[in-house]
Amino acid sequence: MVKIFSLSVVLAPPSGSCTVLSNATDLSSFSFYQRGSVGEFMTFLSRTVAERTPQAEQLAAVIITDQEYPVRPAFSLLTKILDDFTAKVPQSSFSNPSAISFSEINGYIQRYQDPRQADTIMKVQQELDETKIVLHKTIESVLERGEKLDNLVERSTALSAQSKMFYKTAKKQNSCCVIM
Question: Residue 77 maps to which CATH number?
Answer without folding.
Answer: 3.30.450.50
